[in-house]
């Protein structure tokens, strides 16, 4: 059944759609009487039917959730070009709770000011669209772009039972293999994962991250791309 994101659903009854939702309705080629599902990102979804090209009727609310058992936040040194778009889309499908875009010493993509705001809005739209496609009823948060050093300095201590891991640090001899690291987690422990840019973090950044409580983590013998490593971890956590 077609799914449509609508900001701030009011409850049962008739709803007049905003322009963006009306355009989406037209793209889906839905006609009067057709069934669809609406959600507003705050949990649950509404069964609905189309009245006309501008209105829908909300019929019944289903308190269904399709989130991961644990909260996973990915802090990623932004890969360049369309790779960050792809990362946002796939991380949403895999169940990420929030994404923290970062600048690192070796980052290719650097965003500041108005340009950073535009990109955040773009990525938030990608996350919303991915939720429409994959069935999630809670839209991941895109947090403000920050430098790695500033973000680490402002990071609160980890809550008891939660875990922090540092990806893209394959040269660290003490990096824990994923299966052993996974075994330390409780069934619903939150995870904050930090992943590096093209070329990885430099030695100073790795030291700063470890001081902030991050443990180097190995996902295997192969070198993964900047957009692949965090998704590989997220997929493992989603099924494990």
Explain the layout of strands and helices:
Blueprint: E1 3-5, E2 13-16, H1 19-27, E3 35-39, E4 45-50, E5 55-62, E6 72-77, H2 83-94, E7 98-103, H3 113-134, E8 141-142, E9 146-147, H4 148-154, E10 163-166, E11 176-177, H5 178-182, E12 191-195, H6 203-211, E13 215-218, H7 229-239
Parallel strand pairs: 1-3, 6-7, 6-12, 7-8, 7-9, 10-12, 10-13, 11-13
Antiparallel strand pairs: 2-5, 3-4, 4-5
Helix pairs in contact: 2-3, 2-7
**Shape by Cα distribution:** elongated
Portion in beta strands: 15-25%
The SSE string, one letter per element, is EEHEEEEHEHEEHEEHEHEH
Number of strands: 13
Could you say how many structural domains there are in total? 2
Text of the CATH class of the largest domain: Alpha Beta
Number of helices: 7
Q: Find the CATH topology of the largest domain.
A: Alpha/beta knot
Task: Give the biggest sheet.
Answer: 8 strands, parallel
Distance between the amino and carboxyl termini = 29 Å
The CATH architecture of the largest domain can be named as: 3-Layer(aba) Sandwich
Please tell me about this protein's structure.
By secondary structure, the chain is of the alpha/beta class. The chain has 2 domains: 3-62, Hypothetical PUA domain-like, domain 1 (Ribosomal Protein L25, Chain P, Beta Barrel); 72-239, SPOUT methyltransferase, trefoil knot domain (Alpha/beta knot, 3-Layer(aba) Sandwich), CATH 3.40.1280. The protein has 7 helices and 13 strands. Helix 2 (83-94) packs across helix 3 (113-134) and helix 2 runs parallel beside helix 7 (229-239). The chain is elongated, with a radius of gyration of 20 Å.
């Amino acid at each position: 059944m077609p799914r449509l994101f609508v900001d701030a659903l009011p409850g049962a009854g008739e709803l007049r759609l905003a322009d963006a939702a009306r355009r989406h309705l037209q793209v889906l080629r839905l006609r009067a009487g057709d069934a669809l599902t609406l959600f507003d990102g705050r949990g649950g979804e509404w069964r609905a039917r189309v009245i006309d090209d501008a209105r829908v009727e909300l019929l019944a609310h289903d308190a269904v959730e399709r989130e991961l058992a644990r909260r996973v936040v990915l802090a990623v040194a932004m890969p360049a070009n369309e790779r960050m778009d792809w990362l946002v889309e796939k991380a949403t499908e895999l169940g990420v709770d929030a994404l923290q875009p970062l600048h690192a010493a070796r980052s290719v993509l650097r965003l500041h000011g108005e340009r950073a705001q535009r990109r955040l809005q773009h990525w938030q739209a990608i996350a919303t669209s991915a939720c429409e496609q994959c069935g999630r009823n809670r839209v991941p948060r895109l947090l403000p772009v920050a430098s790695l050093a500033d973000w680490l300095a402002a990071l609160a201590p980890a809550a008891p039972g939660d875990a922090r891991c540092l990806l893209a640090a394959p040269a660290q001899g003490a990096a824990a293999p994923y299966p052993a690291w996974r075994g330390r987690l409780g069934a619903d422990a939150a995870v904050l994962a930090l992943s590096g840019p093209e070329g990885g973090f430099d030695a100073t950044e790795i030291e700063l991250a470890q001081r902030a409580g991050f443990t180097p983590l190995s996902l295997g013998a192969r070198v993964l791309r900047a957009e692949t490593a965090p998704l590989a971890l997220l997929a493992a956590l989603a099924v494990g």
